[in-house]
Design goal:
6 helices; isomerase; EC 5.4.99.18; 5-stranded parallel sheet; Rossmann fold; alpha/beta; binds 5-O-phosphono-beta-D-ribofuranose; 5 strands
Length: 160
Amino acid sequence: MKVGIIMGSKSDWPTMQHAADMLDKFGVEYETKVVSAHRTPQLLADYASSAAERGIKVIIAGAGGAAHLPGMAAAFTSLPVLGVPVKSKALNGVDSLLSICQMPKGVAVGTLAIGDAGAANAGLLAAQILGCQQPELLAKIDQFRSEQTETILANPNPAE
Ligand code: RP5
């Protein structure tokens, strides 16, 4: 497994599935697991501290509300951790965003956008990180971006 996708609750899956879909697109292996910072703290410690020795290269962590999962995962591993703020019911994910991005100096979490776009981009960014060591993966990402550009250029009229 190259990427570990973890999330605070099963209810985060409809969002986090977009990260998995993006990795599927590029043929990147991943595992998915519910790991909660506050409901299963020991599992989080075990998961993050053993991730590198299990072959994980990047962790994507999604959580909503008081979203300490990405920061706590980063505290237990020096692998790159990408945080996805899940859209919360009460504050639309602004709470999740601020919880994840405001890491104090010394422990880094890369924070993506709130919700589906952030999850998809976390998958994309994880693939790009892995692509630094795998030219064929980087070529697939270049191809994806070219297709995206071509689709827009081929359909410039917004009313059509
Ligand atoms: C967080 O609390 C989870 O990441 C989720 O976004 C949020 C709500 O969880 P549930 O009450 O739906 O399980 O820990």
